[in-house]
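Hello,

Our lab assistant flagged a job as stuck in the queue for most of the afternoon. It eventually completed. Since we weren't sure the result was trustworthy after the delay, we are filing this so someone can double-check. Below is the sequence as submitted and the structure that was eventually returned. Let us know if re-running is recommended.
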Amino acid sequence: AFTLAEVFSPYYHSPRRVAFTLAEVLITLGIIGVVAAMTLPTLIANHQQKVTVTKLKKVYSILNQAYLRAQNDNGTIDNWGLSNSQFEENPDTGEKEVGDQALNISMLFWSKLQPYLQVLKTCTDTTSDAQCETRTTYSLDGRKRYDSSVFRLILNDGAALAGGWLTLSDCNTDKRKSCGDIFVDINGTAAPNTYGRDIFYFWVFKDRILPMGYAEDRYKFEDLCSRTSNGQSANGYACTAWVIFNENMDYLKCDDLSWSGKHKCK
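-- returned structure --
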């Protein structure tokens, strides 16, 4: 503390007393820069995750509403003229891939929902539009999966709806017997095109659509939502329910989360 005499003294108000040297200014700016460099990536990541949660919850609501309205007008999904999707074997690689039959079934499925969605454009595997271009997708642990060139709907907000791989022979209201599955890429063709980050999977049941990885799902969150490699080609599929119901993506930060235990890293 300063005395009254010191406050009113010429020395107290001297520019020499309050000025900073160039070295002091540079040191201060350097400290601010280091702190910013340490905190900004975390702040940006947290913001991006909040945006993802908001977008995914919105898409989930839109999908369920469209599905219910489609059923009101056309009957349940088993009355839509669909059949089980059949994948074809690539003669060169021996791998299963989408052929004409599965593509046609997917197109028919989405045609029933399209009237109830705000669709910007439709994509087929033959389009050359930038929003519909083929892209490589990745599992949550970073392994390359495949080039995705399937029928898609692009919504007005840029999200892409795709899939429609149907198993109508199992179609039921039982949570363990789905009619098929679909997926959403919440930012279209933009990176990272990774399951559990911007691509999220849903089950289609006879009476509703549910996000993959819910507590009773056969696709377990603990098994198929891991940031470390676990040998599962579908790693990342079961993150969807976690994001929607817990409203976080903490599985990207720690590895001990579970529906029966921790729901956040901290």
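-- support follow-up --
The delay was a queue issue, not a problem with the job. The result is valid. The helical segments are 4-7, 15-18, 22-74, 100-113, 221-224, 240-246. The mean pLDDT is 84.
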